[in-house]
Amino acid sequence: MSSNARSIVARDVTGREVVVTVDAERTSIDDARTAIARALGVPNARARCYPIGSSDELRGGAMWGDRDARVYVVGYARARARVTKRRARGDESIEDTGAEARVRATKTDEIEPMRPVDALWASVMADARRASNGEATGSGADFATPIESLQRLSGKYRALARISLFLHRQNIQPTMRLITRSMASEVAVTTEDARAMEALCPGSVRLIERRRSAEEEAGTDKEIVVDVTAPDETGPSAFTTPAYRMALTNADGASEAIALQGTRRSMRSIGGYVRMAEMTDRFGANFGRVVDKYAAAFERGLRDVIERAPLDATKDTPLRAFVDAVLEMRASEAAERAAAKREGILAPPEAMDRPPAPPRARAKRTKNGNTDGKDGPCCSTEPMNVDEFVGHLRETLASSGQIVHVETMEAKPAVRATLSESVSLSDATIAAFKGGIGLDLKSRLFSHQASAIESILGETTPRKHVIVSSGTASGKSVCYNVPVVDTLLADPNATALYMFPTKALAQDQLRALRIILANVPKSEETVFGIGIYDGDVRSKEARAEVRSSDRLIITNPDMLHVSILPSHKQWVRFLSGLRYVIIDEAHAYSGVFGSHVALIVRRLRRLCSELYGSSPQFIISSATVANPLDHARDLIGFHGVRPDEDTIETVTNDGAPRGVKTFLLWNPALKPGQSHQTNTERKFRRVTSIERGKAALAKKLRETSTLVDVPAEVEDIIVADVEGARTSPVVEISQILAECVQHNLRCLAFCKTRKLCELVLVYTREILRSSAPHLADKVASYRGGYEAGERRVIEKELFSGVLLGVATTNALELGIDVGSLDVTLHLGFPGSVASLWQQAGRAGRREGRALSVYVGFDGPLDQHFMRQPRALFDAPHEFSYVWAQNPTIVAQHMLCAAFERPLFANPGVDEVYFGSTAREVASQMVAKGRLTVDPGSFVAWNPAAKIAQPLLACTDKSPALDVSVRTIEEEHFDVVDVSTSREKIIASVEASKAFFEVYEGAVYTHQGRTLLCTKLDLERRRAHVRMADVKYFTRVKHETTCSVPGGMRVYGETDTSLPMSQCVKCDEVNISTVFTGFSRVARGSQAKFDHVSFPPRSTEFHTVGAWLRIPDDIVSKASETVDLRAGVHAASHAVLNALPLRVPCGENDVGCECFSADLHAERGRRYKPLRFLIYDRHLGGVGITRRAAELLPELIGIARDLVRACSCARADGCPSCVQRLSCDAHNAHVNKRAAEFVLDNVIAAFAPEPDEKSTRSNM
Asked: What are the residue ranges of helices labelled H in 241-376?
């Protein structure tokens, strides 16, 4: 051997060592790397090498020289596995010229394939024998004897992984109860065994304790969810957490360091789930190989335990001794890391035997130099309960006083009842619910569940419909699932229709029903099929299969309207046997949407009764509302033939338990150095101060003595001016969400828009990448616009407990059982108090402790609740409004009904379904040519005839396609990712929102990924986006105006000598939005740093509006202290707040002309009249505004009473008087006192309204 020969000892991250001999003077570093790679079994490559104790990678053409002879090799385990697979297939094209390489502990340099458990322990014994003989072993440690306790644990882990993977594949949440029941007795895994696996190999098994499902009896033990992690071959031992990783938690580049180490993606992440789904796509031999991979990774973890455990292990060493030793070792290492951190050491010395950190890794510091996390992001991942978490928030994120109110809601015990003898359930039904969800139907029902089931199935009670109105997570689904399952099991011809407002809720109920039916005894011959029939079922074959075979169908009002009812002849089997119709979450059917649903239900009842001889029983469930019985009656109407027998029973005796809930009101901190209120979250940012009237007086008083008595309205202006701008609530809610994920609290963050949802996800992941990188993939977003397959993946991960945090819109608001949630976050007021309670009810189901945090924007609406918390927590239950007699909506659905079956074919029946005005509406449609009599008839249509002639629809195409139930647009833009050569559609955007979200230059966010829109193809309806690493988002510049065709009708003077009702105008109006450019806004500071203009683009829709111009006398009467524009704006809001008291409608059904001071200044000298103007927010109008125009004098009087009676002291009012959530100007320019001035003077300005009685007497 040459005198310059040098032996290089290379060790990879799996513990395997090779020795390569090189000539130090003639061999370059790169040549040595090639030799090391060849020795490791990867020819034609160069290994990545690091000297021991250094973070500098060895590379280049310099000679090896006298460099260190011991190096680490990183990143070649996966490559070796590929080589091994090729050799196993007989591919001999791979050369191995490592003749000079001598490999320790193995006879060849090949990597052995995955071996079963027996092979592992045979290898352990061989290593022990060689160690006893003084030979070197491959593990680098001397083994005494095999450990029987660990060998048994390894076999149990293999069985656990097999069962868990199978359950995941079946979309069933793996729990210890299910797993134990599925195992053979000789390999049964106990909870103690699983906890030992979790302790010895962190990450191999994660045990999550939660309360059992919602319908199970209280007082039982907590359910333990088992989460098995997908292995990665590149780790040193698959599940051992490296010590240096904990030390680098706060370091820049920590994610890269962990990538070097080979950190795996858990199946708790979306990527991990997809990977697991691919691995278990086919069972059989492939499934066995997958289990082998999991088991081999676990065995590598046990090897590490045997090597590092600080005890002298023997063959009979018990498992508990290993667990205690490992826990003690980790506690000692944690203490050493903490000491090293206090001394400023990046990593403790014992961590240097791990692969080095990447270059330039340094600890992240705050501005004042602290690294303890007190003033920066929390880096701890210690699990916390709700009380500990609230205290933690007070010490960290809320240290500046962001928590302005804490409301504690006490627990409520369960009230249980037994079923009466009049209800006889089959043994199959009892067994299904007992085995599926652990619910004993005989003795463990809540009081409202027992009452509802008795009303539906009681043999001594007359047949009646039932509405169950109870709190969130009270087990309402049991009230309808028990009767449906029992009836369908007993009658093979019976069918049932479930109608849910959202697809996510339908998927949740499908999963729950399948779990119940899986426990029906196999001897039952009447087991029935369940199918979903919604927009995601697109193939004709799939839809035909649902129609022909399934007896329980889950759908939504939209599909019932456009697909099932128009093609009812294809549903003869199903409609003929229809026994039950379930309407879940009925409180969501309100306003115009609820009115449409009510008419759809009437069309369904009409077909069942008139054509198919069935009379379904309706079971309605709803959250707590003020008018459950009236709402149920408005929804389902009356039976056309037997309306007197059509009774409804209300069940409101909520017996479900409720745990303690803590509700925090979180007001973002004030920005330092700000002296006036600005709001970066509003569309229109106020940049200049208007110093006149009371504002000028307020400024003068601030500059003078503070002992002067200040009027209340002026004091409000001073307070608003002194408060200043607040920090971004989007950033603050993201910080809270990241804290929840770090401390193992499952959380939903509700956002009002899709863009806010994506921004929260982006911010949360950025925070987690710096504080806990291994948890960054445990958060996701859920919103509309995602592809169906992507939604299903997120739903499965959420239902199974895989994800720890989800930013969502109201898509997950309704009664979805997402498991044991701990926290709900709410970004801004959701629109109604009932909606807020519904969202908050997602956490703490049953008796679990829960936390809800309402983070307010700095707009007047949220700030009102921040200052007046009792207005939120003491608010009464809200009413649900349905106007089933709306003439416009009735006309649309009568046309649809005529297409399905001729109108008035059965005398007197359709007048019951469509109301007393049905003939009048039909006459108008006949005159318009939309309905016609039978072509063979020679008699004209006569609405006054005793028996009306049948009417047919004048179309061959289903009219339902032209009737939008909830203003969902049919026209969409596809968002296409062109980052790669293969284009992929990742989402869709409604056409009306395309200019808001996917214009050229827009930053589009999808599942936390930022993409840049490069092209908006208007002809093909496609938006092209590509990946972009940008640290800003974009905000479009637009202006919305409401115009009335024909200027004189709106600009003409108002004749106050006439009654007000004669001065109100009602006609078509145009609502147009003009887009002129966009601004780039920095993520961190929320500051605009660039503006881009593009040619103006506009969108508009035509609707119906009503308006009343403010008389000129009132304008001249207003003094300088009255801001008339703000008064008219606020008064318009007050009129809209009064409208539901006379015309049933929702918050977003009607809008008004809103005023913004910024836009008014930008318009320059453009004249804009002072007027009340309200309009329908639905294309073409839905009749609400026409009815409001008739009642406008009365509505203005009610609005004045509301403003006077409101006790709020703020100048900008509150939601009870002059604020609206749907305000286009975000309530930026409203004034309560000015509104009262306007309303008083408008009422007094006009002549009195004529008395109806005197008018009749004079006629």
From this structure: 243-247, 254-261, 270-279, 285-308, 319-342
Can you give the pLDDT at residue 970?
58
Six-digit token pair at 301? 């973890």
Judge if 547 and 434 occupy the same domain. yes
Euclidean distance between CA atoms 605 and 641, whole angstroms: 11
Rounded Cα distance between 892 and 1164, Å, is 43
Q: What is the CATH number of the domain that holds 51?
A: 3.10.20.90
Q: Residue 993, exposed/middle/buried by CB under 10 A (0-12, 13-18, 19+)? A: middle
Band of pLDDT at residue 185, cut at 50, 70 and 90:
low
Hey, what are 798's tokens? 């959420």
- Residue pair 937/951 in contact (Cβ under 8 Å)? The answer is no
CATH number at residue 620: 3.40.50.300
Tokens matching residue 1172: 């009340």
Do 896 and 816 fall into the same domain? Answer: no
Size (the chain), residues: 1259
Domain that holds residue 1071: 1034-1246
Q: Please report whether residue 593 resides in a domain.
A: yes
Number of domains within the chain: 5
DSSP 1180-1237: T--SHHHHHHHHHHHHHHHHHHHHHH-----TT--TTTT--TT-TTTT-S--HHHHHH
Interatomic CA distance for residues 993 and 974, integer angstroms = 12
* Predicted confidence band of residue 908 (pLDDT cuts 50, 70, 90): confident
Distance CA(825)–CA(845), nearest Å, equals 16
pLDDT tens-digit profile of 73-97? 765 555 555 565 555 555 544 443 3
**Residue 45 burial by CB count (10 A; 0-12/13-18/19+): exposed, middle or buried?**
middle
Structure tokens, 62: 């310099």
Q: Which positions ≥6 away from 1227 have C-beta within 8 Å? A: 859, 860, 861, 1133, 1212, 1219, 1220
In 913-929, which positions are buried (b, 16+ CB within 10 angstroms) versus exposed (e)? bbbeebbebbbebbeee
> For residue 1113, what is the enclosing H or E element?
helix 1112-1117
Is 55:359 a contact under the CB 8 Å cutoff? yes
pLDDT reported for residue 844: 76
